[in-house]
Amino acid sequence: MSLIGTEVKPFKASAYHNGKFIDVTEADFKGKWSVVCFYPADFTFVCPTELEDLQNQYETLKSLGVEVYSVSTDTHFTHKAWHDSSETIGKITYIMIGDPSHTISRNFDVLIEADGLADRGTFIIDPDGVIQAIEINAGGIGRDASILVNKIKAAQYVRNNPGEVCPAKWQEGSATLKPSLDLVGKI
């Protein structure tokens, strides 16, 4: 069953953020746009490249009113150790959530039960706490955060402009569509 259009399920977790441990719940996803980026594990190979790429887009995302949360089934202690020991991960200033209970990974349907690890899943959540977009990649395929930025801009546009939709390859400022009987069969 798709999670698109569903509200984020309740959870409570510990996270590492800018030198401190903090608690995070589903309530933190409300009132602003959020990106939740699941990855398999700390101290791995593709994961740091993705998390660094996400950090490189973080200022742009914040300028769009988006908060970023990375999640793995590691603990918040492991996140701190990785942050302190890796030059790449040491750059991260967004929230790194630990999910050793697998609650969040199950809630978002990305847990690989046999391995106890999360798939590479990215979720865009609107200010109401409702999931608007999902991307799931196989373990060996890294994600591109610049594509995520474009998806968020499209999701925000559609939310702010009821009755309009963004076509394929839509870029901010380009034409949108207004679905109607007149458009049927003409695109």
TrEMBL record:
Presence of keyword Disulfide bond: yes
Stored InterPro entries: AhpC, AhpC/TSA, Peroxiredoxin, Peroxiredoxin_AhpC-typ, Peroxiredoxin_C, Thioredoxin-like_sf, Thioredoxin_domain
EC id: 1.11.1.26
GO molecular function annotations of the record: NADH-dependent peroxiredoxin activity
SUPFAM superfamilies noted in UniProt: Thioredoxin-like (SSF52833)
All copies of domain Thioredoxin, residue ranges: 2-157
PANTHER family: ALKYL HYDROPEROXIDE REDUCTASE C, THIOREDOXIN PEROXIDASE
Subunit annotation: Homodimer; disulfide-linked, upon oxidation. 5 homodimers assemble to form a ring-like decamer.
Job of this protein: Thiol-specific peroxidase that catalyzes the reduction of hydrogen peroxide and organic hydroperoxides to water and alcohols, respectively. Plays a role in cell protection against oxidative stress by detoxifying peroxides.
Protein name as it appears in the record: Alkyl hydroperoxide reductase C
